[in-house]
């Protein structure tokens, strides 16, 4: 005998708090002009709840602008310069959030003017990502001077300057998280970060080549460091000394391009072989000696 169908409940009856929690994971493009505005009134209300706008991710600019064009009149990249379009979207997000924005992830073309706008409209901002490689120190520092609640930021290496980072340290007493986009980090740059931001608890410098001296500088000088991500670089400098010093951390991510941070030990010399596809120094020496000894005689 066929079982009676299980009664279903309409999506519109979901609790508002649950809908808001869902909206926080939808992303800015959909929140502004995608699925949420086309849904029922309860979903639209959740998409306009200030709590849904605590984290604003604007990195996918193409999806964002295409969504706004599909929704109807409004700034679009085809008619309005992208700088002005971004300012308009930031203004809308700040209005919807009612001053509750905690994190903003900006697109690559964003500049210090957009950061200044955020500082004026969202003084309680906790975190921002600003990938621009061309930044004016004075305007950047002016914006930082208004963000006293800032706890972290993701920036390009062009802003890793002692005076700039010291200004961050002085203006933002709760600042503990830094992410840097850099091709190469030497011991000098590591010293700049350590000396200007001594209270860092989380440091991310992925896909960057750096010598062991720079890694050890971070581990020795940042006494409160709990999380270090230096994964993705191609030239591995992880040694037993680095691993021993990093053992105090809660999270240590490294060398993700080679076996997701795994390493193997040489059974002869005990050294770490970072890339399993290449022999360690000990094995290389044995191969050289074998070659010098000449071909092996067949038994």
From TrEMBL:
Q: Where is the signal peptide?
A: none
Give TM segment ranges.
none
Q: Which organism is it from?
A: Urochloa decumbens
Organism placement in taxonomy: Eukaryota, Viridiplantae, Streptophyta, Embryophyta, Tracheophyta
InterPro entries, sorted: F-box-like_dom_sf (IPR036047), LRR_dom_sf (IPR032675)
Protein name per Swiss-Prot or TrEMBL: F-box/LRR-repeat protein
What top-level branch of life does the organism fall under?
A: Eukaryota
